[in-house]
Amino acid sequence: MSKPFDLIVIGAGPGGYIAAIRAAQLGMNVACIDEWKTADGKPAPGGTCTNVGCIPSKALLQSSENYEHAAKHFGEHGITVSGLKMDVAKMIGRKDAVVKQNNDGILYLFKKNKVTYFNGRGSFVKAVDGGYEIAVAGDKPETLTAKQIIVATGSSARALPGVPFDEEHILSNDGALRIGAVPKKLGLIGSGVIGLEMGSVWRRLGAEVTVLEALPTFLGAVDEQIAKEAKKAFDKQGLKIELGVKVGEVKSGKKGVSVAYTNAKGEAQTLEVDKLIVSIGRVPHTVGLNAEAMGLKLGERGDIVVDDDCKTNLPGVWAVGDVVRGPMLAHKAEEEGVAVAERIAGQHGHVDFNLVPWVIYTSPEIAWVGKTEQQLKQAGVKYKAGTFPFMANGRARALGDTTGMVKFLADVATDEILGVHMVGPMASELIAEACVAMAFRASSEDIARICHAHPSLSESTKEAALAVDKRTLNF
Ligand code: FAD
Ligand code: NAI
């Protein structure tokens, strides 16, 4: 006997669980299916983000930053620490506890919003009565039906061709978040977001870290000036990043991993490391969904093809998050989930892709929203730029964290803010002001005329806005 619902969401990552909650708020009878389980077999909703992504990586970034502060920076404050020790097992345990709090939080939210959660793999069975039959394969097999389906099955780590993850020596993001002891030498392939965040964690804890990147440019999607400033900071920290390499044979044995590669000068090199994290991007995940048999259209990358409203080619079937086009970010997945739930309810859900912020949680943090200077140049848009260094900000000096800057790009004629870019302390939080300003189509003058608390890092945002008109007050 199948169980009828108004909406079935497959996947309980940020795209799926948020869509399920929003739909329930709008009065729908919602089922959410997710197959993730903890190592000891307990249901663990939250997807990649909660289990092996955003949340655990930020927990380890925080622990490792605390350690580095105590080891290297407390002295500047007149605080002497003797006998400083690191307990990696405890750090990993704390990270797991933070993940569990988030899993439990989502289970609580499902109950609160009356979303029925099924732990198991969801797959399309057949079309029925203008809707679909979905099977749940798990400890308790079930058959569900609904007229509306949201697929939010996320993504998985891309492996190097012929080099599968063993999560012992060759690690994806999963293994990278549960290394049991600090490796003496750690290698990473790919200096993208995971490469920089995970490289930072293990470098801070004492590993000698080398990152091999195929592209000749560092962080090509980031504003060039900001990327240059960030690279300088990482070089100073001892994070070794080699650009323009071509990775060849990777051999893994009991003693570790050896990576043959050609460097930017064309010279043959070998990198010997204890562990290798492969962070070369992620692939949309549709395994086990029975998507193709159902006639669901997939793109070249294995992504589910959707239109601007997240509609697939099948009536009543929507897809959101990492499994579709666009940036693979939790908040982008959430926004799409909310918008689709609202569209199903007959409302006008909307996502502005130009206003999806990016944050890289290294130290200094890198954050941006809107267009980069190179994008504006390429599009022939006439713009004005203003920058303000954290070095000239009183709060940053008090914090002892003066690396980096805030940069504003505004339209030359209208002064509308076109992009805001930051590298420096708490950029992850500061970028929110830029998102709000741009959502309201503010000008740089609007920000320049708003009273910001003193002393605060956010004064750098105001000063960068003033810099657009060449009238900074503190620099
Ligand atoms: P996912 O979170 O991948 O969730 C999909 C869920 O669907 C999973 O639980 C999966 O088990 C389940 N599933 C798949 N197929 C089925 C099926 N057939 N039946 C049932 N269940 C199924 N983004 C940020 O914005 N900020 C960050 O700081 C950040 N840090 C990250 C750090 C790392 C190390 C990684 C790997 C990613 C990070 N991301 C971050 C990206 C973020 O995790 C993803 O963009 C986000 O999780 C996408 O959400 P989603 O709902 O589309 O998919
Ligand atoms: P990425 O796309 O950020 O970076 C991959 C890097 O690997 C690129 O620089 C690419 O040029 C390089 N590369 C690809 N193939 C290579 C090869 N064969 N040899 C050497 N280099 C190679 O992907 P990453 O770091 O794996 O992260 C995946 C995604 O997860 C991110 O794009 C992002 O969407 C999400 N994420 C977001 C975070 C955040 O918001 N703070 C944190 C971590 C991940």
From TrEMBL:
GO molecular function: dihydrolipoyl dehydrogenase (NADH) activity; flavin adenine dinucleotide binding
Location of this chain's protein in the cell: Cytoplasm
Span of domain FAD/NAD(P)-binding: 5-337
Positions annotated to bind FAD: K58, G122, T153, G154, S155, D322, M328, L329, A330, H331
InterPro entries per UniProt: Class-I_Pyr_Nuc-Dis_Oxidored (IPR050151), FAD/NAD-bd_sf (IPR036188), FAD/NAD-binding_dom (IPR023753), FAD/NAD-linked_Rdtase_dimer_sf (IPR016156), Lipoamide_DH (IPR006258), Pyr_nuc-diS_OxRdtase (IPR001100), Pyr_nucl-diS_OxRdtase_dimer (IPR004099)
SUPFAM superfamilies (UniProt xref): FAD/NAD(P)-binding domain, FAD/NAD-linked reductases, dimerisation (C-terminal) domain
Record-listed E.C. numbers: 1.8.1.4
Residues holding NAD(+): G190, S191, G192, V193, I194, G195, L196, E197, E213, G281
Domain of life: Bacteria
Pyridine nucleotide-disulphide oxidoreductase dimerisation domain location: 356-465
UniProt GO cellular component terms: cytoplasm
Catalytic activity: N(6)-[(R)-dihydrolipoyl]-L-lysyl-[protein] + NAD(+) = N(6)-[(R)-lipoyl]-L-lysyl-[protein] + NADH + H(+)
Disulphides: C49-C54
Cofactor: FAD
Enzyme class of the recorded protein, top EC level: oxidoreductase
Keywords for the protein's UniProt record, in alphabetical order: Cytoplasm, FAD, Flavoprotein, NAD, Nucleotide-binding, Oxidoreductase, Redox-active center
Active site (UniProt): H454 (proton acceptor)
GO biological process: 2-oxoglutarate metabolic process
Cofactor note: Binds 1 FAD per subunit.
More details: The active site is a redox-active disulfide bond.
Protein family according to the UniProt entry: Belongs to the class-I pyridine nucleotide-disulfide oxidoreductase family.
Annotated protein name in UniProt: Dihydrolipoyl dehydrogenase
Lineage of the species this protein comes from: Bacteria, Pseudomonadati, Pseudomonadota, Betaproteobacteria, Burkholderiales
